[in-house]
């Protein structure tokens, strides 16, 4: 495993410090977490907490937070974890501790019971942290001008979107800007690019499964109680194939889709020379858009359509966890999980902060994209139609080890190989689970 790199931010002075200083615990509270966009805004929030509490706080950005904590369990006080499955491993190793004392009677109304269960012990008696951010990956991005030229169509199901695509796409005039590669500087080989490619296809599949069949089927699929070769998943893959395997539907064709970076879809969507109207990229698409365009004027997104589960969302999120009960740690923790956390961040014109709390004051948002995403996610939570990214929840990391590359293989081939690939995924998952 690659040794994690470290970036350190000293709150108060905002200076870079060395790992040896962290090792000597020079700060009152050390927070470890991933490197992410807008860390400087997070630091600004920490500055306010530092001034309010009088405690010196340091944020340590790592490539692999769990790996660091397993090897340095006493070097930090709080941790931000991006995957509930990894959080459970840390709780079983007793590296993180219960956050039950910082929850109240209406907690399920603030976070939704589904989210609480994701970060709780198997019997749901112990909650290992608080959600602080959520992200939606259930977005149909569109070019505003070209969408209006089509009459601003509305879709009540993914099937309707497929039929619309067939009716309005033509040779060299595909409606979709799609690309799936995220492995930078890779040679043009076949489908075996590795983990870094294929994740976007798993996101498409998760959305179609949840849209077509709802949360009960989705949950069983993630737990491997429904297999990839079962009809619900096969038919969902077939729906994806009806678009990606139709050369007329894809701007620049399927070969371009396979070989091009995910970010190129955003560039093409706003390119005045392209024909595409729609794209599937998740919340990160906002970061890929050209600098000279404006959200709401040049591009926007539709909620992912569903006939029977309107409002469904497949998403991601960050959880803040406790590593000890020292007084400075718990006081800073309470400030970070309060309803007011993120208000400064949310008020930034380019903010990407989306609070996980239902009682967050959305009037703080000055950014239309972040506010719309917040409302989309909160609506899905209220309907119990929010589900976490399935590839991250699958047992033993099979989502990354198997699903990503296998789905990329499906995209490179055709619907004729659908059942074969689904059975191959099931076989590989069974083998992985048996061996581990």
Write the layout of secondary structure elements.
Layout: E1 6-10, H1 19-23, E2 29-34, H2 39-53, E3 57-62, H3 65-71, E4 78-81, H4 84-92, H5 107-111, H6 113-118, E5 130-136, E6 139-143, H7 144-149, H8 158-168, H9 199-222, H10 231-244, H11 253-259, H12 263-270, E7 278-280, H13 285-288, E8 299-303, E9 313-322, H14 327-336, H15 343-346, H16 368-382, E10 386-388, H17 390-393, H18 398-412, H19 418-435
Parallel strand pairs: 2-3, 2-4, 9-10
Antiparallel strand pairs: 1-3, 4-9, 5-9, 6-7, 6-8
Helix pairs in contact: 2-14, 9-10, 9-18, 18-19
Report what the structure shows.
With 436 residues, the protein is α/β, with parallel strands linked by helices. It folds into two domains: 6-128 and 315-382, D-Maltodextrin-Binding Protein, domain 2, CATH 3.40.190; 139-312 and 392-435, 3-Layer(aba) Sandwich (D-Maltodextrin-Binding Protein, domain 2). Helix content is 43%, strand content 12%. The protein has helices at 19-23, 39-53, 65-71, 84-92, 107-111, 113-118, 144-149, 158-168, 199-222, 231-244, 253-259, 263-270, 285-288, 327-336, 343-346, 368-382, 390-393, 398-412, 418-435, and strands spanning 6-10, 29-34, 57-62, 78-81, 130-136, 139-143, 278-280, 299-303, 313-322, 386-388. The strands form two sheets. Strands 1, 2, 3, 4, 5, 9 and 10 form a seven-stranded mixed beta sheet that branches. Strands 7-6-8 form a three-stranded antiparallel beta sheet.
């Amino acid at each position: 495993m690659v040794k994690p790199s470290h970036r350190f931010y000293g709150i108060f002075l905002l200076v870079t410090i060395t790992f040896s200083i962290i090792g000597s615990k020079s700060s009152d509270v050390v927070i470890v977490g991933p490197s992410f966009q807008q860390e400087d805004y997070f630091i600004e929030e920490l500055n306010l907490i530092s001034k309010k509490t009088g405690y010196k706080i340091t944020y340590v950005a790592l490539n692999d937070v769990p790996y660091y904590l397993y090897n340095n369990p006493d070097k930090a006080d709080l941790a931000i974890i991006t995957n509930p499955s990894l959080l459970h491993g840390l709780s079983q190793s007793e590296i993180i501790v219960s956050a039950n004392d910082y929850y109240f009677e209406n907690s399920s109304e603030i976070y939704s019971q589904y989210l609480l269960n994701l970060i709780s012990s198997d019997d749901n008696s112990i909650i290992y942290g608080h959600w602080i951010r959520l992200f939606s990956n259930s977005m149909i991005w569109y070019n505003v001008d070209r969408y209006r030229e089509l009459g601003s169509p509305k879709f009540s199901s993914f099937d309707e979107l497929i039929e619309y695509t067939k009716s309005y796409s033509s040779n060299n005039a595909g409606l979709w800007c799609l690309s799936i590669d995220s492995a930078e500087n890779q040679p043009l080989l076949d489908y075996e690019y590795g983990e870094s490619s294929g994740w976007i296809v798993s996101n498409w599949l998760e959305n179609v499964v949840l849209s077509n069949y709802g949360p009960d089927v989705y949950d069983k699929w993630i737990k491997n109680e429904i297999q990839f070769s079962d009809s619900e998943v096969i038919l969902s893959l077939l729906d994806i194939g009806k678009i990606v395997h139709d050369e007329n539907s894809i701007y620049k064709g399927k070969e371009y889709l396979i070989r091009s970076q995910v970010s190129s879809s955003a560039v093409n969507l706003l390119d005045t020379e392209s024909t595409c109207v729609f794209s599937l990229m998740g919340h990160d698409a906002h970061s890929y858009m050209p600098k000279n365009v404006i959200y709401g004027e040049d591009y926007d997104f539709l909620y992912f359509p569903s006939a029977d589960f309107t409002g469904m969302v497949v998403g991601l999120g960050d959880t803040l966890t406790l590593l000890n009960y020292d007084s400075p740690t718990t006081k800073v923790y309470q400030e970070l999980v309060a309803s007011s956390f993120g208000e400064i961040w949310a008020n930034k014109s380019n903010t990407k902060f989306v609070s996980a709390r239902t009682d967050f004051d959305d009037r703080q948002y000055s950014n239309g994209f972040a506010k719309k995403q917040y409302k989309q996610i909160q609506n899905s939570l209220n309907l119990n139609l929010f589900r976490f990214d399935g590839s991250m929840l699958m047992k033993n990391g099979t989502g990354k080890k198997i699903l990503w590359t296998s789905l990329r293989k499906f995209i490179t081939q055709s619907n004729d190989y659908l059942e074969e690939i689904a059975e191959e995924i099931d076989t590989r998952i069974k083998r992985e689970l048996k061996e581990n």
